[in-house]
Amino acid sequence: MSKKSDQKSLWHWKNLLPAIAGIGLYKLFGLSVVPAILAGWFVYSKLEKKNKVLSVVVGLISGVVVYLIFITFLYAYFFE
């Protein structure tokens, strides 16, 4: 193989590996939204009959909190 061919092959891998890593991280963190949605929906449905605005706000806050907790556990497990 010539040097030009080797450089082209190396350039291909340098561009392909970050894309593969990005897809993997998307799959890992993209699925972490599911527990947050479920927690937010659960809180919303329990408070819906009492106060509509309060149930939306508390449901959103609980979803964000569950998402942050879930991401923290994933980060601690996979990256430490």
Provide structural commentary.
The chain is mostly helical. α2 packs antiparallel against α3. The mean pLDDT is 77.
Note the run of SSEs as H and E: HHH
Structural class call reads: mainly alpha
Number of strands: 0
Unreliable spans are none
Outline, from the CA principal axes? elongated
Total number of helical segments? 3
Gyration radius, in Å: 21 Å
**Beta-strand residue fraction:** under 5%
Distance between the termini: 41 Å
Helix share, percent: over 70%
Largest sheet: none
What's the average pLDDT? 77
Please provide a brief summary of the model.
The protein is 89% helix and 0% strand. It contains 3 helices and no strands. The chain has helices at residues 3-30, 33-47, 52-79.
Task: Based on the model shown, name its key terms.
80 residues, 89% helix, mainly alpha
Topology of helices and strands:
Layout (H helix, E strand, L loop, with lengths): L2 H28 L2 H15 L4 H28 L1
Helix pairs in contact: 2-3
